[in-house]
UniProtKB/TrEMBL annotation:
Record-linked InterPro entries: F-box_BR-signaling, KIB1-4_b-propeller
Protein name: KIB1-4 beta-propeller domain-containing protein
KIB1-4 beta-propeller domain residues: 13-286
Taxonomic source organism: Arabidopsis thaliana x Arabidopsis arenosa
Pfam families with a match to the protein in the record: Beta-prop_KIB1-4 (PF03478)
High-level lineage: Eukaryota, Viridiplantae, Streptophyta, Embryophyta, Tracheophyta
Length: 328
């Protein structure tokens, strides 16, 4: 931010050319005391913990207005009797925010907080959040996502063996729909390696492709302290593709071929894009950003673990987020 406090910079890492892109922006007064706590469809969720206010903004979009980014104020957070609203796991939206005069668009924002609270609202219609008590505790890696194909919000249960979901007709007392995830065709690995994976950190992610295919991504990783010679160790990633759903059970088959797709996993809502739609992206790959910064090529079975590019601040003010490709 500039000395007068008005001009700031948005720093974006462009994957195709591995370069840092800088966009000068006027820093809005509404964001001065707010913190970026989530991202979905390229929009950021900013929250002020002191007064529980929140808003959605396109400030991170390099092609958005440099002086007047769009700001959509959300209802104030209201914690449930057994919940809290200070720590946000992530945000998921049914779509990017529609135009102001488009009242027919059924745009829904969902926020998963640390613990059991899930909050949903239609920002253009609701004056308050609909708070739902999920059937299980969620920790920092618990990720809410929206399925455009099914028109449902999905949340993986701890362990990654069950998936619960809510449709757009959400109510506080409405029970979620449960789906058991049955894994097939597990990769052929030595028993010692399977046992070793039990000691690794693991994250489970549910992702949907532009065509409506669903994938379960299991990310295992062992870490050493940063700034040591081997701090970035190769993660083990397993991808399972949904084959069919029957009697509430989703059959998931292991695959090392997701075709012309690139999956992006970070602190934001996970997403998937066609590699051919964005020159420079690697097909059949997974881009990880969080505990480490790496791109896995499933075809070549290789991993590129990258250092942060030159020019990045020593202290990153925001949590790491992948953002979908932008266009003017």
């Amino acid at each position: 931010m500039s000395p007068d406090g008005n001009l700031g910079q948005v720093l974006l890492f462009n994957i195709p050319d591995m370069k840092l892109v800088t966009a000068d922006k006027i820093y809005p007064d509404e964001l001065y005391d707010a913190q970026l706590v989530g991202a979905s469809h390229g929009w950021g969720l900013f929250s002020d913990r002191t007064n529980r206010s929140a808003l959605i903004s396109d400030y991170l979009n390099p092609y958005a207005s440099k002086s007047k980014p769009k700001m959509i104020h959300l209802p104030f957070f209201t914690p449930m009797y057994s919940g809290q609203t200070e720590v946000v796991c992530n945000v998921a939206m049914s779509s990017p925010p529609p135009d102001q005069d488009d009242d027919h668009e059924d745009w829904v924002v969902g926020i998963k907080f640390l613990g059991r609270q899930l909050s949903l609202c239609r920002p253009r219609h609701d004056l308050r959040w609909t708070n739902i008590l999920t059937p299980f505790e969620s920790w920092e890696v618990s990720k809410l996502m929206y399925s455009k194909k099914d028109q449902r919000f999905y949340l993986l249960a701890p362990g990654g063996n069950y998936l619960c979901s809510w449709d757009l007709n959400f109510k506080e007392d409405k029970k979620p729909k449960f789906h058991e995830l049955v894994l097939h065709n597990l990769p052929n690995m030595p028993r010692s390696l399977w046992k070793q994976l039990d000691s690794y950190g693991r994250e489970d992610h549910w992702v949907e492709s532009p065509s409506g295919e669903s994938f379960l991504v299991k990310w295992f990783c062992e870490y050493s302290p940063e700034n040591t010679s081997n701090w970035c160790k190769s993660p083990i990633v397993m991808v399972f593709r949904e084959e069919e759903t029957k009697d509430g059970r989703k059959n998931m088959r292991y695959t090392d071929d997701i075709g012309d797709l690139c999956i992006f996993i970070s602190k934001g809502e996970d997403f998937c894009v066609k590699a051919s739609s964005c020159p420079g992206l690697q097909p059949n790959s997974i881009s990880l950003h969080g505990r480490l910064f790496a791109i896995l090529n499933l075809t070549k079975r290789t991993m590129g673990c990258y250092e942060y590019p030159q020019g990045i601040p020593k202290r990153i003010p925001y949590l790491p987020y992948w953002l979908p490709p932008f266009s003017p």
